[in-house]
Structures are given as C-alpha cells and as structure tokens.
Amino acid sequence: MRSATKVLEAALRAIEDQDYGALPEVKPSFDCRNARLAAEKEICSRPRLAKLDVKMAGLYRAISDQLGRGQERRTLKWDQGQWLRQRNQCEGSGRCIREAYADRIYALESLQADLGQNVEPAGAHPSFDCGQASQPTEQVICESEVLANLDQQLAGSYDQQRQTLRGRKRRKLEREQAAWLEQRNECRYRFNCIREAYEERLFSLSNSVEDF
Q1: C-alpha span between 81 and 155 (Å, rounded)
Q2: pTM given for the model
Q3: How far apart are CA 16 and CA 199, in angstroms?
C-alpha cells in the first residue's frame, strides 16, 4: 500500500502549499515559544504542518465570529477542544497530525457551507463541474481540497491510460472506471470512505499498466 500512501500525502501537500508564501516564513497560529506538547513542537518544527494549522485556525475564527455568542458558538468551541485533544494524541507523528488537520479542515469547510457562506475553498477544483454535482459524494468532493486534488490526480491518470488503449482494452478500462464510480458514490457523505476509494483506485491504475 505504499503507493496509496504516497497519493494521500501528495494530496495533503497540495493543501499545504497554497497561499502562504515561502515555507521558512510560515508560523502556526499559536506561539511556539509556549509549545509544550509533542504535537505542538512537531507543528512548530515543520512549516507544512504550520500551514495547515494557519488554515484551520482561520476557518475556525471565521465561523466562530459568524455564530456570535450563543449556544452554537459554545458547541463549536467544545468540538474544537475535542479535536485538539485528538490531534495532541498524535504526539510527534507528522503523518497523524496532517491527517487530523485534513479531517478538521474538511469538517469546518462543510460547516461554513452549511452556514450559508457558499464559498468554495481555494484550490478545490475536481475534474467535474461542481455546479452540476448531484451525488452526495460529489458534493463532499467539491467541499474538500484533499478529495478534489485526489479526483484531479485520478482523472489525469485515467485519461492518460485511456489514450494509450484501443478497442477491447479501452472498453475494459471504461467498464472498470464506471464500476468504480458506482462504488465511490456509495460512500455518500463519508469522507474517509471517499478518500480510501480514491487511494485504492489510483493504486489499481498504477499497477494495471502492465496488465493492459
């Protein structure tokens, strides 16, 4: 499964590399001088993780400001505390921390959309038209940079392989892709299910070149 792991890491890096300038200048949303926990120290030592922290913190503040001072804001604060405890359990594992941020960013982006922001995250452009997205799975992909980038990678890999094939072999690949799309759509609103479906399909395509 190393190839699938690399695919996920590439998608996460696509988020990390956006709109924050040169990596050495990036600092997280908290003061690293007060970092005591292993996870905090890891974030402070790795600019890519700091970028994710800045993005997550920005989303959290924007939503918190919009909610005002009522019960919804208190619920958001409690939920954030629960997530921070989960993130801190990663200790010094960079991969675990990256995945925790990816999941939290997706959750906050979804909440922002539910609140009527109607803002598609910068860089979240899958291979299909989000304006025509009718499947729950497609809507989740359109709201997540991680999944949108995985979709772009898959579409590119599929199109490239399809162009090299003719006749029976091309039809076989098209049938496999259609079957995979049906399987992917069964995930509906489950982020991890969709992500795993893309990882497995990308891994399958990378290993099917020789079969054709």
Answers
A1: 37
A2: 0.48
A3: 19
CA separation, residue 51 to residues 20, 21, 44, 85 (Å): 7, 10, 10, 19
Interatomic CA distance for residues 54 and 44, integer angstroms: 11
Half-sphere exposure of 25 (CA within 13 A, CB side): 5
Q: What is the pLDDT along the chain (212 residues), one digit of tens a residue?
A: 444 445 555 556 555 444 444 444 578 989 999 999 999 999 999 998 998 998 898 888 888 877 777 777 888 899 999 999 999 999 999 999 999 999 999 888 888 887 764 444 445 689 998 888 888 888 888 877 778 889 999 999 999 999 999 999 999 999 999 999 999 999 987 888 898 999 999 999 888 755 55
- Those residues whose C-beta lies under 8 Å from the C-beta of residue 128, and which sit 6 or more positions away, are 138, 151
